[in-house]
Specification:
The protein has about 800 residues and is mainly beta. Among the domains are: about 605-775, no CATH class; about 780-810, no CATH class. The chain is elongated, with a radius of gyration of 32 Å.
Length: about 800
């Protein structure tokens, strides 16, 4: 089993003392990356919930110890060079942030903590019945040597806040709506309460940063302003929670919005960012202040003069800037799940650690028609649409980015209004070709240009080059689906305008004709299907798929399935009449079965027999995605769980937090082979992949290799597993004798790697939806039934003439 797709930017990372390693919070673990190669070296496993803080113990370069905190309510001490857990402190409350002033004050230089070492934690306080209190956030003091809370509550807030600490370790603070609370860390062996001051503002703060040597604090607000207080706490700190120096609403220079009587000598305001500040950090020498926000530009402010220089075109909102003990190396964390290593002070990006791109919101009008993922099952890659008009190729086996393709060249900055959206991505079977569709969104009802692009790659690094651009491939209509031919350089595109087009690459034509022409793609054929109830209306083409050998092209004409000969562009047959529009078609591997998925108020999964031209079985399931194994008749679907589902006849809802289920089928049988309940199914995807190194390990273990099933959830976290490995350790149930029986002990399938399994009604649906099948005497029913069941025109004329001939013979007799 392989997992990945975790976030690298849920919390600030930390450098090792020799700056050769970067410790990154990745879900429930801490991953250690090499700063020279950008590759993961090892992982610290042990937490059971999201890791929210990692702090390296400073010292000589050989020292390799760190503290971590997590939402599982524990603080842990590690030797990260050996990946060894050395100590665990359980405070039984989720920890959202942690600072340890003793480390920065130089009070610790070994793996043995002194008797008076304390950490300050931002925790969430809940009542015994788990109902949130009005003030859920608390700042608590924790003894690291005695492994317990010190009983001191420094502050209470509506929600847990992030704690910021000065590089010297003398001060730490939090933002609390329109206030800043700053504490002075107690001196060694001090038994006095932690002293606090409060600074005020008329807008909500977003974060704060403390100067490494001076009593100077900078804070950003929601409007993009940066406020800098100099000399705070020079007069006094308060003891406990008493607020001091309420003062007037104007600062010493008369500007509104800052309390001039706060305990600070002066206050300065800078304003360059158009929106809220996400990043604030003083340089290690204290001469500069770095800031960043949604616009994706790192701004370097000279503290004495206010002069600026910029690192633009990062392409994503900025989150954290982390310094190392090497003054020439820093790490910049971005919202697109990337960490850039910067050469300072020039701010040059030298290397990037790229995680899987996070999902982005498409405009509502395109929400249902955008393809989420495209898979290269041979190399185990997934192609993802990103926010900055790119396609990211990500290795599911190696859990790292392979490449990025810029689909549309635009000077896009994060936070700008989206004007272009990549709606569809499709890959050829061998992964060497790609086709994309992008839409320029209309402005004031004008525009809406659709662009179809074809790409080619000659390398294993998936560096695609643009081959052909087709503007408005279906006139003014949008493209609903793209599909590659399994063996030829051929692509079908279907449109909501009522037609589909078959595109071929001129390279294939040149090989046949032995001519030298410009390489590119051209339209080979056009097809449509008219609604015979309304003859002037062509039905929208909503889905398309090629059969395993490429001899049949299936195109959904809204609620019916049309089968075509793609070479001769001839209509072969028409199947069914669904109640809702068909959104997905897929052939079940090398079998003669076709799958169709309908969505709407009456969703349905249907399996059609190509040999009988009729529906074999169906389920009324709301399907999110479907994938078919290439070398068998197996397929898997990702279905949404109904909110009213119950488990084994009880009145309790199924699986708290589970909203989807994966069902594995053989196309010949409506009874699932196995089922797995999952989280975050809405927006998720499935794919069968070849096993590669995973299969080689299975062969070494004496197991027969099988295709792997990949599940990616809505947050782009993923897992790969062998769906046919019934003895896997993660599976709790055992396999039945021949297949899964529909009873109370075996209806779970083979149990879930994500939890228990829901109850489904497994009765076979024998009702066919307007099947089409040839008759022994077709002339008797040739014009009866629905109009979409009419035969192709050449066959229709032949059958009609045969019917006249039959009638004449009968009359003579």
């Amino acid at each position: 089993m392989i997992g990945g797709g975790k976030s690298y930017v849920s919390a600030p990372p930390a450098f090792s003392n020799d700056a050769k390693r970067l410790l990154v919070c990745t879900g429930t673990a801490v991953s250690v990356f090499s700063t020279s190669t950008g590759l993961q070296i090892l992982s610290l496993e042990g937490h059971t919930a999201l890791v929210t803080a990692v702090i390296v113990v400073p010292g000589n370069k050989a020292l390799s110890f760190c503290w971590t905190a997590s939402l599982d309510g524990t603080v842990r001490y590690w030797d990260f060079a050996a990946a060894e857990l050395m100590k665990t402190i359980d405070i039984k409350m989720p920890i959202y942030s942690m600072v340890i002033p003793a480390l920065l004050l130089g009070q610790t230089d070994s793996k043995v903590m002194p008797a008076d070492a304390f950490a300050y934690l931002s925790v969430e306080n809940t009542t015994q019945d788990n109902a949130p209190k009005a003030l859920r956030g608390q700042i608590r003091k924790c003894s690291l040597t005695e492994s317990r809370l010190a009983g001191v509550i420094l502050a209470e807030t509506r929600k847990p806040e992030v704690i910021s600490i000065s590089p010297s370790g003398k001060f730490f603070g939090i933002r609390n709506k329109r206030k800043l609370h700053i504490w002075r860390a107690p001196a060694k062996d001090s038994k006095l309460p932690v002293a606090k001051i409060t600074l005020h503002h008329t807008r909500n703060f977003t974060l704060l940063a403390l100067h490494p040597t001076k009593r100077l604090v900078a804070a950003g607000d929601t409007s993009g302003r940066i406020l800098i207080w100099r000399g705070f706490g020079n007069r006094k700190f308060s003891d406990g929670d008493k607020l001091v120096n309420q003062g007037s609403m104007n600062d010493e220079e008369g500007r509104p919005g800052i309390r001039g009587d706060d305990d600070a000598d002066s206050c300065t305001t800078w304003h360059w960012h158009p929106t809220g500040i996400n990043l604030l950090r003083f340089s290690s020498d204290g001469a500069y202040l770095y800031s960043g926000g949604k616009e994706g530009v790192l701004v370097d402010w000279q503290l004495d003069t206010g002069k600026k220089k910029f690192l633009p075109r990062i392409g994503s909102p900025l989150l954290y800037l982390t310094d190392s003990l090497d003054p020439s190396l820093s790490a910049l964390s971005c919202a697109d799940n990337q960490i850039h290593l910067l050469k300072m002070p020039s701010m040059e990006i030298t290397k990037s650690i790229s995680g899987i791109k996070l999902p982005f919101s498409s405009p509502d009008v395109y929400e249902g028609i955008c393809s989420k993922f495209a898979f290269d099952d041979t190399d185990g890659l997934v192609a993802l649409r990103t926010e900055n008009y790119r396609i990211q190729f990500y290795s599911l086996f190696d859990d790292r980015e392979i490449s990025e393709v810029q689909v549309c060249e635009r000077n896009h900055q994060p936070g700008d209004e989206v004007s272009v959206i990549v709606t569809l991505v499709s890959l050829s079977g061998d992964g060497s070709m790609m086709s994309t569709v992008e839409v320029n969104l209309p402005e004031d009802g004008i525009g809406g240009l659709v662009c179809l692009k074809f790409w080619a790659s000659d390398s294993q690094n998936k560096n695609f080059n643009l081959s052909t651009i087709v503007y408005q491939p279906h006139r003014d209509a949008g493209v609903s689906a793209l599909a590659f031919h399994p063996t030829r350089q051929m692509v079908v595109s279907s449109s909501y305008g009522g037609d589909f087009k078959i595109w071929v690459c001129s390279d294939e034509i040149q090989q046949k004709q032995d001519t030298l022409q410009h390489s590119g793609w051209m339209c080979y054929a056009v097809g449509s299907y008219k609604d015979y109830d309304v003859p002037c209306r062509k039905k929208p083409m909503t889905a398309a798929a090629f059969s395993a050998d490429g001899s049949v092209l299936a195109v959904a004409a809204e609620t019916v399935i049309t089968l075509w000969d793609p070479v001769n562009n001839m209509l072969v047959a028409v199947l069914g009449e669904m109640q809702m529009p068909i959104v997905t078609l897929s052939f079940a591997g090398n079998s003669d079965y076709l799958l169709s998925i309908s969505r709407g108020s009456k969703p349905q999964l249907s399996v059609w027999s190509m040999s009988k031209l009729s529906e074999s079985w169906s389920y009324k399931l709301d399907i999110e995605d479907v994938t078919c194994a290439k070398d068998s008749s197996s397929f898997a679907v990702l279905a949404h769980l109904p909110k009213s589902s119950t488990f084994m006849g009880s009145n309790e809802p199924i699986f708290q937090g589970k909203d989807g289920v994966i069902l594995l089928f053989n196309a010949t049988d409506p009874v699932p082979l196995a089922m797995w309940s999952v989280r975050k199914a809405k927006g998720g995807g499935l794919a069968f992949l070849k096993g590669n190194s995973f299969q080689q390990q299975s062969i070494a273990d004496g197991k027969s290799p099988q295709a792997l099933l990949a599940y990616i959830n809505a947050d782009h976290e993923y897992i790969l597993f062998d769906p046919y490995d019934y003895d896997a350790r993660e599976l709790r149930m055992t396999r039945g004798k021949d297949r899964v029986a529909v009873d109370e002990t075996a209806r779970y399938g083979y149990a879930s790697i994500y939890g228990e399994l829901p109850q489904f009604e497994m009765k076979r649906d024998q009702t066919l939806l307007a099947p089409y099948a040839p008759s022994q005497r077709p002339w008797e029913t040739i014009f009866s039934g629905s109009s979409h069941n009419l035969l192709p025109l050449p066959k229709l004329c032949l059958e009609f003439m045969e019917s006249l001939l039959e009638r004449r013979t009968t009359t003579v007799e």
